[in-house]
Inverse folding.
């Protein structure tokens, strides 16, 4: 009837799992109450967590695909593996490129082929797990990458993209030097002179000068230099300077990453120091970069206020022109006459499309690569180099019918599950819903 210390019979547990997988926990609790099974939403969640604690032991058909999806966009990503023949998810991993993916692939030596997107990280993971596994790059992602690198240059030639100036930020070393100088300027004049003497004397000592030579260079007595250097930097700096010095390197790293205002730096700083200290550390940098940033802001604002009288051509129209070489837009036809490189871009894109679809007049991949690296557009050259790094997977995409379409559908289903749970799904709960909601699995399996 039930397992040891069980509160419900096998049949009741089967109903709980069935209802909890198909809807939210609260709705499942209400539905079960209509069947005279009085349990709360927490019990449904607990049972799903127990089901999704680990990936189940399954045997694959040998032909699978893997892709990642966002658990929390921009912060946490997960990975899913789907069988191409059964069209069922086989495993869901908490990380995007973790060791657990390699271990899972090693535990399934029957896998012969894996489809993936153009990620070289996944290529490295699959190669680490087994060199015998054939990798197939997804045709859709290849064409999307080609679209990104080919449409933007055409839009620039048409004048549809306003190139805004990026805001200037100092490098990490430049920011660190400015912050240390600002820290040394804290305190009264007597204290500042003492700190300046210490750093000047230590710099000369590091250059190999003797104590007497250092004193002579700084025009002070040897006794004063010795007393200044004796206690080290901790004996020279005051309390505020010591606190600021501990956070100086981290503040410099945050500033070089694109945050120069003291308020933003304070939010990102892991060490807790007063906002007054942060303002004093960043004051020279802020004064130096304020006019530069204001100049960039005015330039970008002037670009936004410019009114374009010409009609913009849609990206889909440009893309269709690039991959077919035909268009009804007179503006695109004139562009080909005024810019000879456009003809070369079209030739490269049309050749790659024929290559992917294995058409009879498709060029050889080596000839296509030699032609692409001669293109004047930097983005096209970079795309060609990426294709040659993943040459074997691209060639298999041309010769097989496998793709990542089933993976994209699984990812869309996972997003629907997340939204139904208001994006609060625990990884174990999400794994259970993705793996078992559509799988023909044994309901009499008891994790306990």
């Amino acid at each position: 009837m039930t397992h040891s210390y069980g509160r419900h019979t096998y049949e009741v547990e089967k109903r709980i799992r069935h209802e909890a997988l198909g809807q939210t926990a609260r709705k499942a609790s209400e539905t079960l109450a209509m069947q005279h099974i009085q349990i709360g939403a927490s019990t449904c969640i607990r049972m799903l967590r127990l089901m999704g604690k680990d990936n189940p032991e399954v045997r694959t058909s040998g032909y699978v695909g893997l892709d990642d999806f966002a658990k929390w966009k921009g912060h946490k990503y997960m990975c899913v593996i789907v069988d191409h023949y059964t069209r069922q998810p086989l495993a869901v991993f908490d990380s995007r490129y973790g060791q657990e993916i390699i271990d899972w692939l090693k535990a399934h030596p029957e896998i012969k082929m894996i489809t993936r997107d153009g990620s070289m990280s996944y290529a490295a993971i699959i190669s680490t797990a087994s060199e015998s596994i054939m990798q197939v790059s997804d045709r859709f992602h290849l064409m999307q990458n080609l679209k990104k690198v080919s449409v933007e240059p055409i839009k620039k030639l048409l004048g549809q993209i306003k190139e805004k100036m990026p805001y200037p930020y100092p490098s990490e070393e430049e920011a660190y030097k400015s912050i240390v100088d600002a820290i040394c300027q804290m305190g009264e004049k007597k204290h500042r002179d003492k700190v300046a003497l210490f750093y000047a004397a230590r710099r000369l000592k590091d250059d190999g000068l003797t104590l007497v030579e250092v004193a002579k260079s700084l025009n002070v007595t040897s006794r004063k230099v010795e007393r200044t250097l004796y206690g080290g930097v901790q004996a020279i700096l005051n309390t505020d300077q010591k606190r600021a010095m501990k956070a100086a390197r981290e503040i410099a790293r945050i500033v070089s990453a694109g945050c120069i205002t003291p308020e933003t730096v304070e939010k990102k700083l892991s060490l807790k120091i007063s906002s007054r200290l942060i303002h004093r550390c960043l004051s020279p940098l802020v004064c130096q970069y304020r006019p530069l940033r204001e100049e960039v802001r005015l330039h970008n604002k002037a670009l936004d206020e410019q009114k374009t009288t010409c009609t913009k051509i849609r990206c889909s129209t440009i893309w269709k022109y690039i991959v077919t070489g035909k268009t009804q837009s007179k503006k695109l036809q004139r562009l080909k006459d005024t810019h000879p490189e456009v003809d070369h871009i079209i030739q490269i894109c049309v050749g790659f499309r024929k290559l992917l679809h294995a058409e009879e007049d498709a060029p050889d991949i080596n000839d296509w690569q030699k032609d692409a690296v001669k293109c004047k557009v930097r983005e096209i050259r970079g795309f060609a180099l990426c294709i040659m790094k993943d040459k074997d997977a691209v060639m298999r995409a041309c010769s097989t019918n496998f793709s990542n379409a089933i993976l994209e559908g699984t990812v869309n289903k996972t997003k629907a599950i997340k939204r139904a749970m208001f994006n609060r799904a625990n990884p174990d709960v999400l794994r259970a819903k993705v793996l078992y909601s559509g799988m023909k699995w044994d309901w009499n399996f008891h994790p306990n």
User: Anything to note?
Assistant: Strands lie at 63-72, 76-83, 89-93, 113-116, 134-137. Residues 318 and 332 are 8 Å apart (CA to CA). The two ends are 14 Å apart (CA to CA).
